[in-house]
Please model this.
Amino acid sequence: MKSMDVNMTPSLAALLPRSAIILELAARTKEAVIQELVKPLVADGVVTNEADFIAAILRRENLESTGIGLGVAIPHARTNAAKSITLAFGRSDSGVDFASLDGKPSHIIFLIAAPENNKREYISVLARLSSLLRREEVRIGLNRARTADEVYAVLEQHDRPK
Amino acid sequence: MERILLLVEETPGAGHVGDWAVRLCRRLSARLFALSVIPARPLLNARSPVLDAEEKAWRLLYEVEDAAFAENVPASLLLETGDPLQRLGELCRSYKIELIVVSTDSRVPALELIRRTPSPVVFVKPPKED
Model:
């Protein structure tokens, strides 16, 4: 995980552990992708109850789509099963159906885990990430990244922590 | 009624109007479409970069989504660029919207909104600030 300035809210790169960057997801379905992305967060101790966390994510997925279009999905949950706000990133060349409104499969998937009591930062991270991923140059950069360092480089180039 | 669109704007009453729309959707078992429209790039000046405008808009949209999720209301978030009236009209037709919910402190002129959109409009008055 990258360092951050203590006077700022964390950069997106600072919220993304290296272990939670999966450049080629093995899973092909939405549920399996979510499970694959949650695994490293469980191993890192960010998610303390895997079953509860996945249930919270899937509850939202069953109610609405977290596919924001343009080949991007941001599954997210704010729950006591998460200790701190953390991201996981996965990429799927074949694409995964997140029921996006534009009908297109998602190739770039960022999962957000957040504790129940941190709504402000949770909304802020969701908004920053959504805004960033609407930019074509960011999506191209993430799609082309060959290593975790290149993923960090894309985020650090375009993200502006406040 | 199954499809209700909320126009999400950065106004003092945004939270109240969002909650009102969520409650209405819950009562009617309707899906909520939360729409925010930001100005087209050329209309944004150098001090209001596109990314800031988008980020603010997303923040408002996710506030609505959070409230909807808490009430078990399905919500779809839409961020569009351009003229709000034009985009509203297009999206109402695309998503077969049956009702538009707007705040009385909206920046969109009320009469124009009623004239130019194909769906009925309900205006919600935010509580007065004392």
